Amino acid sequence: MKLHYQITGTGQALVIVHGLFGSSDNWRGIAKQLADYAQVITVDLRNHGRSAHSTQQTYPLMVDDLVGLFDELDIDTANIIGHSIGGKVAMAFAAAYPERLNKLAVVDISPREYAGDSSHIAIFEALLAVDLSLYSKRSEVNEALSELLPDKAVRQFLLMNISQQNGHLIWRINLQALYSNYVHFGAAVGEQTKVDNSTCFIRGGRSRYIQADDEVLIAKQFPRSEIFTIEQAGHWVHAEAPQPFLRKVMAFFNFEVSK
Q1: Which residues are catalytic?
Q2: 255 contacts 37 by C-beta, under 8 angstroms
Q3: In this structure, which topology does domain 5-114+187-258 adopt according to CATH?
Q4: pLDDT, tens digit, 9 for 90 and up, residues 130-183
Q5: Closest alpha carbon to 200 in 236, 244, 252, 243
Q6: What ranges do the domains of the chain cover?
C-alpha cells in the first residue's frame, strides 16, 4: 500500500512512524527541528492520516508498506523513530530488514504482546458513537465528546483526525477498520529474531508500557540497546517532554556531531 508522507530537510534519511490515532502531522514540530540534521520523512500508516484505507492491518502488512515507501523514495538504509504501535512496526521492520536500518529509536513500547488497553477501547467507543453529520465545527464535536472523554488533551489530539470534505466533517482515520483490527496491534513482534542494530528505547517515567520484565526481553531481542527514561513524561513522550526527547534523539543519532 502506498503511504502518504511528508519530507523536511536534507541528508541521511530519518523515518518517523506515529502511533495509534496519530499521523505525520503530530510530528511536524519534531521533524522541523530535526530537519537541520537529516532528511526527515514522517509517514501516515494505513488507515491513518492521508494514507489509503484498508480492511486489514497487521504488523507484517505495515512492514510491507514501509518497505514500499523505502523503495519508492530510493532509500537503501535509514534511521527510524517509532512511537507506540509505530515503534512495533519499526521493531518488526528491524527484525525483517536489518540491512536497511542504521539506528532505531523506539518510543515507549516493548516488543512483547500487550492485552487490550481499556483506554483505547473507551476512545473507540466514544468516536464511533459520534455522528459527524450532526456537526459543522470541530468545537462542536469536542463538546459532544467531553463527557465520554474528559481529558481535554486527548480530545484535542483525536480531533486532529477530523477534516472537511464537500462542506462536511469526516474522520480521516478509518475508525471501523482500526477497531476491527485492534486485536492485532497488541501482538508481539520479532520474537525469534535478534536485532543487532544500535537501538534506543525512550520511555516515559509516568508510563507503564515498558516495565521491569520488558527490560529483560529488550536486552535479549536487542542486545545493542539502551533504555532511557524521561521521568516527567507519560506515554506521549515526544509531546509531553519535547526538549528532553529531542536532546536524547539527537545524541543517539549523533546529529550534533554531523551538523
Answers
A1: 84, 235
A2: yes
A3: Rossmann fold (3.40.50)
A4: 999 999 999 999 999 999 999 998 999 999 999 999 989 999 999 999 999 999
A5: 252
A6: 5-114+187-258, 118-180
